[in-house]
Structures are given as structure tokens and as C-alpha cells.
Amino acid sequence: MINAVSDAYSRRAVEYVERFASFGAVHPSDRHLVATWANGIDGAVIDAGCGPGQWTNFLNEAGVPALGVDLVPEFIAHARDTYPGIPFRTSSLDNLDVDTGTIGGVLAWYSLIHHEPDTIHTPLLEFHRVLSPGGALLIGFFENHAIEKFDHAVVPAYRWPVSDLCDELVAAGFDILETHARTTTGQRPHGAILAIRGDAR
Ligand SMILES: C[S@@+](CC[C@H](N)C(=O)[O-])C[C@H]1O[C@@H](n2cnc3c(N)ncnc32)[C@H](O)[C@@H]1O
Questions:
Q1: Ligand 1 centre and the CA of 92: distance in Å?
Q2: pLDDT digits (tens, 9 = 90+) for 143-155
């Protein structure tokens, strides 16, 4: 699956950058949520699955040192050209190649949507590993009443109920702080979860 995701985004990287590298398609309340979340973080943030890097830059401009990580070399090349001075790295979310317990926050904004439900545990454990105790996680995703696969424009993706994703987070060692769900006419239902690394692991 991981190669299929990387290949599909690589093939459509130019188109994706044209459509989504700006904040035109982002709901204003999402910008507010990410900014508010970032404001309370102590330490660096990983923008996990950063795509063209616009959220990485957003975090940096909000005063939070951010590292952008993505599977797709074309996105990382674009991000490095567009935002010189911000670090970007080609890497899998399943293995971030970052020291254990060194990161203040992980933003996974619509980047876990392509994981098969029975594999989503892997990146969540990896996020838990890299976060410092009390480190913060924010996930954005397509929300639904049941886990459901659908034909995303680039490569198949999954919609998740907030409660099911919360269960996965708790199983990976996170404590849930807040959940959000939003339905807007003409847009796919959206969910967001804020969690912190629990002490249990
Ligand atoms: C829908 S895009 C979202 C990009 C960006 N977060 C945004 O909000 O514009 C999903 C991104 O997640 C990345 N991605 C998906 N699975 C990944 C994985 N296993 N490792 C690293 N990146 C991944 C894709 O390459 C793509 O850039």
C-alpha cells in the first residue's frame, strides 16, 4: 500500500500542489485549531505527511520550529524550494528516523487517511515514540459513522468515526484531549482529534 500511495501522489504531485499548496481549500476554523494547538507546544513539531509543506510553513510562522516529513520526493523538493530554511525530509510515517522522546508535537493532517485500518497502529506508535512525555498530537481526517474505504482523488482512502480513531490512539498510548466533527455543505465530513502522549508506555 505504501508504494501505491507514494507512486500515486508522485504522478499527480504537480496537480496536487496547484490545488492544495495554498490555504484556499482549508476551512478557517482548521487554521484556527492548528494555530491554537501549536501555541501550547513546547519544542519542535513534525508535520507528518506534509505534502507541499504549507502547514509546516504555517507552524514556523506561528513561532513553532517545524520539520516536514513526507513519502513523496516531489512534495519534499517543492517544499524545500518554496520554504528555504525550513527542514523537510523524505520519510515514511511508520519510521520517522527521529530520536525517541525528542519532539513536542506531531501534526498528521489528512496524512493517515491512506493507511489500511489494520496498519494505522504503526504510525500512531511511531508518533508516540518520538513525542516527549506530554507531547501533543493533532490528527485531521475524513469523518464517517463507520470505517469506510472510498475513492479519494489520488489513491483510495478511509473515512473514520471519531470514536474508532480515538480507540486506536488510546491503544497506542495516547490520552484524548478534544475531538471535533464538522459537516459543511459541499464538503466531506471532517474530524479532528487532539491527544497527548500518555505516561503508560
Ligand atoms: C491528503 S495529503 C495531505 C497533505 C498535507 N498534510 C495537507 O494537509 O495538505 C496526504 C499526504 O500524506 C502523505 N502520506 C501518506 N501516507 C504516508 C506515509 N505512510 N508516510 C509518509 N507520508 C505519507 C502523502 O504523500 C501526502 O502528501
A1: 9
A2: 999 999 999 877 8
